[in-house]
Amino acid sequence: MEIIKASHSNAVIVALLARITFTETFGHYFRDKTDLENYLSLTFNVQKLKNSLTKPNNVYWLAFIDGLPVGYAKLKLKSPSPLIKEQDVCQLQKIYVLKDFLSKKVGLTLQNVLLEEAKSKASKIWLSVLKENLRAIRFYEKNGFKKIGDHDFQIGKEHFEFQAMSKSLL
Question: For the residues of 89-106, what is the DSSP string, one character each?
Answer without folding.
Answer: EEEEEEEEE-GGGGGGTH
